[in-house]
Amino acid sequence: MVRHKGFPGGAILPNDKGLSEGLEIQDIPVFSTVQVALDDGAGGRAEATVQAGQKVSCGECIASAANADGVNVHSPVSGQVGQIEQIALADGSQKPAMIIDTSDQKQSEGAGERPSWKVYSEGLIKCLRWAGITQMQLGGGSLVAEVRKATKAGLRWVIINGVESEPLITCESRLMSECSSEIAQGCELLAEVFALAGGGEKSAGPRGILALCGGRRQALGAMGKALQGGRFRLAALADVYPQDEEALLANTLTNAGLRAGSDPAEAGVLVINASSVWALSQAWYQGKPLTERVITVSGDGTERIGNYRVRIGTRVQDIAEHVGLLPEASVYILGGPFRGWGREKPQGVITKNITGLTILSKVDRQRPVACIRCGWCSDDCPAELEPARLYQLIEAGRVDKAQKAFLEDCIECGLCSYVCPSHLPLLEKIRLGKWSLRKEGRKA
Amino acid sequence: MKIKSGPHLYSGESGRRIVWTQVGTLWLVVVVSAAFFGWSSLMVLAGSVGTCVAIDLALSRLAGSRNPASLPHAVLTGLLLGLSLPVMSEMGLMLRIAVLGAIIASLLGKWIFGGMGHYIWHPALVGILAVHFLFQAEVGMVGKDKYLGGDRREKYLLLSNNALLVGDLSRNQEPRFYQFGQDRSKLLQPNDYSGWCVSVPVEPAQAWQLYRPVQILQELGKGQIRNSASGTGPSAVEQVVYLALPPLADAVVGCTGGGLGETSVVAILLGGLFLIYRGYVRWQLPVSFLAAAAVSAAVLPLPVGPSGELVWLPALSGMSRAGAANGFDDWWRLLAVGLSYVSFHLCSGGLMLAAFFLAGDMATRPIRLGGQIIFGVGAGVLTIVARIYGGWAMAPLGAYSALLVMNTLTPLIDWLTRAKSRGK
């Protein structure tokens, strides 16, 4: 028996997933330029191992992990390496990226030798670092670090996160519908690595759960079939946003007293994104490093809504041209409409953690007026915060008081701004407060 | 490059929509008030709403504030203020009271704090209380002797049930309606009234003058109605329920004396349930308000008789007298008396209007659910305390004054129920 949700607040949103849920994953061609971020903000760094002007083939390692949490970066295309430039990631932070020009190269799979790893957690970490696998959703951290932390804390649960509660985004449900056997293979691998207990409830040892949203029938059916006889249990959860936040999901499934802002890995709960499990299975069994991912292109500003397999580093501009823009398209969002980052022009690149490209005709944002104390922001806040109060504190310059009101526990889901009948930019202000706290922290 | 933070979708809710919905849910209450109290009730409402709107338009412009929710909120304030006032035979006086109340509500209740969202008391409450204290003789309790010849009870006009929507109290100058200096003996006396449910229409009459049930309840608490001398006779509560109060059905439907929108429990409940359905009021707030009031009415000791003899557990007070000797039927009858007594407390004196519409005002109630329950319980208990132990002037305003106190305590309740700690 799985609980409806294991966190306060949250909301059932009109998610319009029907637009792209039933559409098969299509390949997007390779465009003339890709920009591969060497650091995608997950905490790991990588240093380039190839020189400008050098020719690389698809799947070749172009940067190797440079710190403990870092992962390798592979060329997603065959082409000629250009300069390393600073590019803006989805959230606007400047990171180095390698520009690869593909214009005069025939695309071919590089026949890199496939290393082999031992089936225990250190072997898994080695594989993740070799293949460049991180948490493949916005805000996801370094998977390597989380595996380390969870094993150190004494692993109790392995949770595969395929919940995807963000509106419009269906890339993971699609992946689970179409590549269920690969994901099931990855699950079994994890079960083997962590010696998960199978069978009845009474057997000892850590357990594995694959969680997805009960509303995604096709993915549910496919994964149910694929996981049969395996050690992973399937959990169909309520379609409550933000069910897919790591700590909240972990609490729904394990009831371990986790809240927004706490780190499930430290409580021995390892949460892995379903796309990351798919990438792991590709790497472990077929020797393919992570060079592509599935994204959902949706919204009312695009001609061909769908799920697309794109190379990491593909520019938004190219994708937008490929899928076709409607004349009214005016907002380009990297990610879903809630946690994604919007731009007025098709700019930015696809990194490993981008789940979708949402192209909207307009953002229906009205002029903010005085708070009427409806309390809806507090009601819906999954972190039990009082966003309206934080807003007032930060606006008054009292970030220290906001910190005492648990500002840092905010998971930036955006529900407060969504429900606010006074149209206050609550999430923006809270992000500003968190940003200035981080800045102070660096100074101190 | 400009990068925008999420969310990029919005729920489409707005303060304007919330307040217009609250105004819209009052339409049934307004219609019912016109049915029971005549067209003049609409005049009273028009006076208070018009004044509130005019002041709001003027001050919005003056203050340069363009909050789109402010205007509908002025309409709501005017409506709630008007619905708490009684209709009287003298229309001019009634309109003057409504307009003055609206001015006080708008200026002292709302704009002095900076308008929409900034006030600390519900503006309509400020207006209601100000009017009741300024015009005690006309709309309040005290000083009625001057007009009503020694009867301390106030009488409110109500249309007779064959005169739905036709009796215009403001224009009808026939001697059936009370006017200053007129011989009161010509008026239809309340003794003729036995409730809409059971009364036969009296041909020439188009209106009755009625006591407000809340006032009779209050007299019970003031020792005006006593336990019968013999140990087995009807208790004071029983006497009140069976002899003095109108049938409970009348109090629920709304054909009793009282403020224009206070009397009809059915109309208020329908509107309130719609607000709950839309999520603009959490059900826990009115439910905790009403539940606390019901429990307080049932258990708070009632001073009966001139010596202030206390009746504990008034809801069960009949039982000890009759005893179980008479068998089950008698027990049941006495329990019915207790339940009716509690129900009358809930159905009278603006308690329903306060619980669903005035307490649900977002700016003046605590924001968290726990705080709202504290707020509701506090208001419910204070209402009954004011009715039973309050003075003559305070008692009929029980629900309103209790709510004003709780409005004042709202920042404190918010502070008590704030997010305290988090397990890391």
Strand percent estimate of chain B: under 5%
Strand content of chain A: 15-25%
What is the mean predicted local confidence, pLDDT of chain B?
79
User: pLDDT below 50 for ≥5 consecutive residues: which ranges of chain B?
Assistant: 141-153, 162-191, 200-205
Distance between the termini of chain B: 37 Å
The CATH architecture name of the domain at 114-286 in chain A reads: 3-Layer(aba) Sandwich
- Biggest interface and which pair forms it? A-B, 60 and 39 residues
- Subunit arrangement of the protein: heterodimer
Distance between the termini of chain A: 48 Å
Total individual domains of chain B? 1
Radius of gyration of chain A, whole Å: 21 Å
Helix content of chain A: 25-40%
CATH classification, class level of the domain at 114-286 in chain A: Alpha Beta
Largest sheet of chain B: 2 strands, antiparallel
Compact summary:
By secondary structure, chain A is of the alpha/beta class. Chain A contains 14 helices and 17 strands. Among the domains of chain A are: 114-286, NADH-ubiquinone oxidoreductase 51kDa subunit (Rossmann fold, 3-Layer(aba) Sandwich); 376-443, no CATH class.
Describe the structure.
- The complex is a heterodimer of chains A (444) and B (424).
- With 444 residues, chain A is of the alpha/beta class.
- Among the domains of chain A are: 114-286, Rossmann fold; 376-443, no CATH class.
- Chain A contains 14 helices and 17 strands.
- Chain A has a 6-stranded mixed β-sheet with strand order 1-14-13-17-15-16. A 4-stranded antiparallel β-sheet of chain A has the order 2-8-7-4, with no helix packed on it. A 4-stranded parallel β-sheet of chain A has the order 11-10-9-12, with helices on both faces.
- The termini of chain A are far apart.
- In chain B, a hairpin with a 4-residue loop joins β4 (302-304) and β5.
- Chain B is mainly alpha-helical and 424 residues long.
- In chain B, the strands form 2 sheets. A two-stranded antiparallel ribbon of chain B has the order 2-3. Chain B has a two-stranded antiparallel ribbon with strand order 4-5.
- The radius of gyration of chain B is 23 Å and the shape is globular.
- Chain B has one domain (15-170, 212-414).
- Chains A and B meet through β16, α10, α13 and α14 of A and β1 and α1 of B.
